[in-house]
Amino acid sequence: MGDIILEARHIHKQFHDPVTVQVLTDITFSISKGEFVSVIGKSGCGKSTLLYILSTMDTDYEGELLIDQEPMTQKTDAELARIRNAKIGFVFQFHYLLNEFTVLRNVMLPGLKLNQHSEQEVEHRAMERLKMLGIDHLAQKMAYRISGGEKQRVAIARALINDPHIIMGDEPTGNLDNRNSDMVFDIFKQLAEEHNQTLLIVTHDQSFAQNTGRIIEMEDGRIVRQ
Amino acid sequence: MNSKLIFGIAKSLLLARWRQTLVAAVGVTFSIAMFITLLSFMNGLNDLLDGLILNRTPHVRLYNEIKPTLDQPVNVSAEFNDSYNFIQSVKSGISRQEIYNSGPIMEAVKADARVLGAAPKLTAQVFFNEGTIDITGVINGVDVEEENRLFNFQDYVTAGTALDAKNVANSIILGKGLADILVADIGDVVQVTTVQGERFPLKVVGYFQSGIQEIDKVQSYASIGTTQKLLGKPNNYITDIQVKLHDLAMAPAVAKEFRQVFNVDAEDIQTANSQFETGSSVRSLISYSVGITLLIVAGFGIFNILNMMIYEKMDSIAILKATGFSGRDVNRVFLVIALSIGFFGGMVGLLAGFGFSVIIDNIPFNTAALPTITTYPVNYSLVFYVIGGIFSLITTYLAGFFPARKASKVDPVEIIRGK
Fold first, then answer.
1. Domain A4-225 indexed as CATH 3.40.50.300
2. Helix (H, G, I), strand (E, B), or coil: what is residue A226?
3. Spatial contact of B212 and B369, defined as CB atoms under 8 Å apart
4. CB contact under 8 A, A99 and B316
5. How much is the ipTM here?
6. What is the pLDDT of residue B1?
């Protein structure tokens, strides 16, 4: 631990449409390497909005965001895309696989985009990750032919393909039944403990959050407890 | 590597909706095929019609025109230099139609590097005597071999051989229409009376059919020697020198130069046949605009299908962006999709266009007016295929441009949050 992976400094955000609403107020925190952090809060407290800002997809905010000690403000769209590609892995509530591709190809895409390894190498890494998550038998299936729980595990494999600094999840278990939720949680836990993977998971599931290493609780756009 | 990835994604997106893709591609194929067919056929027709006149027309014609002299003696005279001279009832003088010094002029013209060849010609006004009827006609005295080489004379001799006009003494090739009036078969002898009143028997060795009936009713051909004999002229008497150039476009300049150098009248083909140029270019213009309209319609088809595809693929675009694809990558994916529809659709269209052209080229087309034509004319110029290919890419690029830009601007947060 010790290395700071992600740091938010005084982040403010407002929505202007249709009326100006303050969504996030003075969000300041940091996440160190290997931490398993969950952000909880009621619906509409701004936790998802915060995640999108932290993921660099939303650039319309005030304050400073540092990923890997590098400021994200005033970077171009292409630079941010590169950072998302190389340093951040995503797992969403809805599985968001590309239905036109096989499971394996879905996992490989960010790796191919990063373009650090040859295609064979990327394929090998993708298979490794699928194996680790116990879904390597699905590799050649089309993405829309597998179940919800399997999809979410594929999404996790995809998030891992480039060895990201941090994995961000937006209600990754929100759309799954208990058995699959537990399985996904176990995977996260295993990643955090065995692979020292940094995780930042937004959830409204209290029991999920209780088992994570650190809880950031939000209310009305502020951090009330961390 | 990265572009390979872009192509891979584009390919998957295309194949995932292959029916839509096919519809879009078929639109391009159809319009390109029509474009090629239309242009090939239209230009084939143009060439045919132009050839009808242009192939047989000298690029530059040297002759002496009968006309009143411009410098009337009173104007030349120094005595009346300062006065206004009114001359009434000006008449053409006794000028000879013969080209003076025709031998050396022919040599000089043939030696010119721009000239493909030159053929002498003289014309004689005659009456053909059929019983008690006299029919006016013109006998063109030509150098048959040169005429064959430069003006495809043999193509228009539909019966008999052109060379017989040279090889058989006192022979004539009659226009088909004229032969019908005279009821003259090949081997028959027709009686000809010259303007001077001399009467000659001439043996018919062939028929000539130009495709223009009015000409066939009046014109006939004989060798230069025969015609000179008919007119009672020496063997250096010719009235026209027909010049064919390597490059048709140079005709006006060459005509102007010859006019000055040889002190004769010179007429270039552009002046003599300006209406054909106009007709050709208007026809080309029409076929190009129809072809391009077809392509633009196909372009709108692609535009629509890409737009729909982008709405359908919002989620995919969002996830691509979330996992590190930049707006530019997404833009390129959709441009590649559009261009590959254009490329493959266009390729097939070019082939189909070629196929249609071949089919048209094999449809029988017999017309009495055009003896050398047996099927519909088609011009297989590579230019049309190049233009068609380039245009299919340009239209599909433009059709893909706006949808692709829209796709590149998709905000992943909005899509992911919107769920």
1. yes
2. coil
3. yes
4. yes
5. 0.82
6. 47
